[in-house]
Amino acid sequence: MSDWLRLAVVFLAAVNPAAVALAAWAPSRPRARAAEAGVTGLAVAAALVLAAALGANRLLDALDIAPETFRIAAGLVMLTAGAYAVARARVAAAAFEDGWKGGISPLGLPLLLGPAVAVAALSYGADEGAAKTFAAALPALALAAALTVARPHRWTALADGVARLLGAGLVAVAAGLIVEGVRDI
Amino acid sequence: MGTKEQQRGDATAVKACSRGRAPYAARVWRGLGATLGLWAVGALMLRAIVVPPERCPPVTATSALSATYAAADWIARVQRPDGSYLYEYDRDRGEESLGYNVVRHAGVTMSLFQLAAAGGDGAMEPADRGLRWMLDRQYRHADWSALQDPVDGSVDVGASALMLAGLAQRRLATGDVQYDGMMRALSRYLVAMQLPDGAFLNSWDREANAPDPRFRSKYATGEAFWALAMMHAMFPGEGWDAPTRKVADYLSLHRDEVENQKFPPWADQWAAYGLAEMATWDAATVPGGVRLSADNVTYARSLAERFGFLVRAESQRTDGTWSKLIHGRQARAAGMGTWVEALGSLYRLSLAEPRMADMQGKLRERLVCSAGMLVDRQVTPAEAAGGAHPIVIEGAWFTEGVTRMDDQQHALSGLLRSRLAMGAGERTE
Fold it and tell me: How far is it, in rounded angstroms, from Cα B258 to Cα B262?
């Protein structure tokens, strides 16, 4: 598995598009308003991921934290987010509203850019570089944003299962990240 | 997800708006504020508990050398006329401990010879006094000789291995060959104590006239490994490479399992010394020119990871109450010094061994950080001046008011070994 693909899978679990969609789906929304929210949310989340990945090394330097040590902290946050997704099939509790303002919050933040995605962007941004991190996060963010617009209600049960599965995946990724943080120099 | 339920929710939302709920934009910003507030609380908790700042006090090759001299001066000042050292001192009570430890005596003497080998002025005289104390306490059997504990009469591998390592450092320092016979005799004792799997038994049973088969020592095996690795470097062709390789493979492949290490690899700085020594063996003196096997390199990498983590964790500790509560108390110099020794050895290994080259940058970073912490925690002359007995305080490292001679030993050796990463040469001149 290439580095990018591995990272893309990590971000798929961190973003958890199925859980985001479950939090955002509402049957009575006009599609245009939902699309407006989706595009805005994607833009906000992508911009913040890019900023986090670009500024990761400088931020960690300023905080006097080695990237290796930060992996442990990132892993703990991702572990918690993953466990929450397994239990609730959600990435966060949020009352969703349409339009560009709803795209900023709650869709952009904290649904698309949840704590797990934020720390993953910082940790992988410091370790793997901003470009690779951003490129790996973007597909998951775009998929999640698209799913909030698509509104395939008859797949709710499926989405619920996938959200929990991705949550479990995130728990596994987080455990690996913690071990990496402990075992690195 | 019930559709009706959601429709009811939407309808409620519309009614709420019409009853004068806060405008939509205000609710959005309030939600955003709440999210960011929660995140800030989470980040602060992470900062306080998991990722406090890693503090690496500044250090240079010169300040590291000054600290080694100060440590060596402490050892020389507290040395007794018979060559033994002050074992332990409690500065709060102003009391010396009555105990003594022959392995630590050999280790302290070895560290002085290391400083002498690096060109350190003044280290040779106290080191030779310490050596004389050991030469007077030899247990001889068959064709070998070993250092015997004068208190309980035990003949342990660790003491003899460190005595041998000290003699090897002395030979490097002086080129003097007068103790070559003693070095070979000590080496023969070590080989007599080696098990077929490469490990070393801890003690010679004087009543049975045989190695005591009951105990291995997690320290002695690494100590003997390094000492024998130096024997091959100094006396190639005499066959010291075979037992050295055997123990290298034991350490690399079996030790953690056989000796039930709960969190492998055991953080063994002596193993790091030995591997670094093997990496510089003359290729012409080893079969096929292969110094380290792939397993040895894998093991060395795992040691680098372990020591690197220990240093990162230590750099997060402070003397404050909160830090002690969450992260435990700061490591004593005898512990942290071994990490610096190990990282210094592994850094050398990364310079000599291409399969370790990718770790060089991080090894240097952790090594300099740990050396900086050691220098920062050493008692300065100004700090010692206020105490009742500055002579036993200055240049030492104290943990909860107590210093032991191996605090100075390991810190001295580690700082000496760290200087290469700060751009200094092997010798201090």
Answer: 11
Give the CA distances from residue B399 to residues B90, B285, B329, B379, B408, in Å, rounded to whole numbers and listed in that order.
Answer: 9, 45, 9, 11, 12
| Closest chain B residue to the Cα of A154, Cα to Cα | B1
What b/e sequence results for B28-45 when a residue is b if at least 16 CB atoms lie within 10 Å of its CB, and e otherwise?
beebbeebeeeeeeebee
- What is the least distance, in Å, from the CA of B50 to any CA of chain A? 6
Residue closest to B271 by CA, chosen among B242, B301, B241:
B301
Which chain A residues are closer than 8 Å to B309 by Cβ? 68, 182-185
Residues 41-70 of B with CB under 8 A from A: 42, 46-47, 50-51, 53-55
Helix, strand, or coil (residue B196): coil
What's chain A's average pLDDT? 92
Q: Do B32 and A65 touch (CB under 8 A)?
A: no
Sheet holding B155-156, edge to edge: B155-156, B203-205, B210-211
Taking an 8 Å Cβ-Cβ cutoff, which residues of chain A contact chain B?
Answer: 22, 25-28, 63-66, 68-70, 72-73, 76-77, 94-95, 97, 99, 101-102, 104-106, 109-110, 115, 118, 153, 156, 182-185
pLDDT of residue B4 exceeding 70, the answer is no
- A69: nearest CB among B24, B25, B54: B54
How far out from the chain centre does Cα B18 lie? 71
What end-to-end distance do the CA atoms of chain A give, in Å?
Answer: 24
d(CA A20, CA B257): 46
User: So what CATH class is B52-284+292-422?
Assistant: mainly alpha
CB contact under 8 A, A64 and B55: yes
Radius of gyration of chain B, Cα coordinates, nearest whole angstrom: 27
The answer to whether A185 and A68 have CB atoms below 8 angstroms apart is: yes
pLDDT tens-digit readout, A15-33: 999 999 988 877 667 788 8
The pLDDT value recorded for residue A100 is 85
Spatial CA neighbour of B340 closest among B161, B114, B116 = B114
| B342 and A CB contact within 8 Å | no
Check: complex ipTM more than 0.90: no
The closest of B90, B213, B208 to B141, measured between CA atoms, is B208
Interface contact flag, B55 A156, Cβ < 8 Å: no
User: Which pair of tokens denotes residue A126?
Assistant: 């410091």
Residue B210 has pLDDT above 70, yes or no: yes
Name the residue in chain A with its Cα closest to that of B14: A97
Give the residues across from B404 on adjacent strands: B88
Angle between helices B24-49 and A115-128 (to 10 degrees): 50
User: Hey, where are the domains in chain A?
Assistant: 3-183
Three-state SS at B216? strand
Sequence ranges of the domains in chain B: 52-284+292-422
DSSP 8-state assignment for residue B402: E
Q: Cβ distance A170 to A85 under 8 Å? A: yes
